[in-house]
Amino acid sequence: MTLKGESIEYNGKITWFVFLSSIIAASGGLIFGYGAAVTAGLIASFVASPVTTTLGRRASIIIGGAAFLAGSALGGAAQNIYMLIFGRLLLGAGVGFTNQSAPLYLSEVAPPKYRGAFNFGFQLCVGVGCLIAFFVTYITQKIKGDWGWRISLATATVPALIQTISAMFLPETPNSLIQHGHDQEKAKTLLQKIRGTENVEAEFDDLIKASEASRTIKHPFKKILERQYRPQLVMSIAIPFFQQVTGINLIVFFAPILFMTIGSGVSTSLVFTVVIGIVGSITTILSSLIVDKVGRKVIFYIGGIQMFIPLMMIGGIMAAKLGEHGGLSKGYSILILVLICIYVSGFGLSWGPLSWLVPSEIFPLEIRSAGQSITVAVGFLSTIIVAQSLLAMLCHFKYAIFFIFGVWVVLMTAFVYILLPETKDVPIEKMEKIWKEDRFWNRYVGDAQI
Question: What string of DSSP letters covers 55-67?
């Protein structure tokens, strides 16, 4: 990669060590996809920031898995409402810690050339977790008595147990080791093992410089408000917010109801929902193969177009047909399904995984944990707002709700075009250069010193 004529490229390759470590870290997405208390997750994301900074990324992942494990076990064995509430709080705490630390871990251990592909594993696990949760709920709801919901809650111990136990074997990231003042030779040896080469001087020197800068920061949440970090602050708020106003919640939360509304039976609507989940997961896998080749912005553009057109068409079809007859013919129902699959594939290609990747790779070390906490908290808060208002919007706007989300897709795609620099191939500890070279953000971060 070249920045103003200077090539910045670290030595290293994809090793089994970093591959297995990334799989373990990405598995944290399973518990997020499986579902948890959103409010408790929002609060926990801020608590997780100092923990991730002080104890490290690995410790935060373990705490998240253990909290989710305890919450799911407590929920399954609940004897009263208080046990259920406390269990939900623990579930949310687990998600908050995991979402705060796992994407950071992935971005720090992955080779810069393949950082996007490794980070996408988190979103893939989120999608798989959602599918597992759907199947478990579908099966257990038919069980008589109170065993159905107990089994549904207790089953969540499986992904939590996988994350907690496997994370104990994770190494800490070299970035975190150096930041905590550990033996530099130990950190360098780990970096050599991760990269599969002894020639890691360039990357190691950058880690040392980043660590020295981070140690001078006592209050990262206060620091991120300074003018020089304005680009990162804007992205940490805008990107997770935009992810939630893509309209994906309209599809995920109300897909069964939507299909029943347009004339499909209960069983058919459930099958359609599974198909949608599978389509999203497959598209995320395909996107991981190209994200480090074509770049983040191109995928944002493609995904934006791929989501905008179906939203407009679905709104148009429902306005023209559903309002007249109170239902849709089989042909139009199939067309709606196809359009929704196209939309979901666009989300799985772009805003689904990129909303985790981009924030996790843009923050300098001194504000990295704080920035990720803001990203996670804004995502949770936006989820709460959208989820709570979605039913009222459906009742009030009806088919026009698809047009509303379509407008948001246009706005967020324009935002990416104007304000988000390309981060492909840029080492995570060199990311400040993209802001210094950007025509808009340069006024905030000062002249590029490259």
Answer: T-HHHHHHHHHHH
The C-alpha atoms of residue 344 and residue 310 are separated, in whole angstroms, by 10
Could you tell me what percentage of the chain is helix, strand and coil, using 3-state DSSP and rounding each to the nearest 5?
80, 0, 20
Tokens of 171: 């190494």
Q: What is the pLDDT of residue 260?
A: 67
The packing angle between helices 368-397 and 351-362, to 10°, is 150
Say what angle helices 351-362 and 81-109 make with each other, to 10 degrees.
Answer: 70
In this structure, the strands spanning 6-7 and 2-3 are: antiparallel
End-to-end CA distance of the chain: give it in Å, rounded: 14
Give the whole-angstrom CA distance, residue 66 versus residue 73: 11
Phi, psi of 2, rounded to the nearest 5 degrees: -120, 130
Angle ∠(275,277,279) on CA atoms, nearest 5? 70
Residues of the chain with pLDDT under 70: 1-9, 35-40, 42, 182, 253-270, 322-328, 446-450
Dihedral pair phi/psi, residue 330, rounded to 5°: -60, -40
Report the C-alpha gap between 311 and 404 in whole angstroms: 9
> What is the per-residue pLDDT for 323?
58
3-state secondary structure of 7: strand
pLDDT of residue 163: 87
Closest by Cα among 6, 104, 2 to 55: 104
CA gap 299, 351 in Å, rounded: 9
Q: pTM (2 decimals)?
A: 0.86
Residue 3's pLDDT is 44
In one-letter notation, the amino acid at residue 277 is G
Nearest to 312 by CA among 190, 244, 403, 385: 403
Q: Measured between alpha carbons, how far is 414 from 301 in angstroms, rounded to an integer? A: 9
Give me 160's structure tokens: 């939590």
Give pLDDT, residue 275: 81
Query: How far, in Å, CA of 356 to CA of 242, rounded?
Result: 12
User: Which residue type is seen at 230?
Assistant: R
Spatial neighbors of 182 by CB under 8 A, at least 6 apart, are: none
Choose among 121, 417, 405, 415: nearest CA to 298: 417
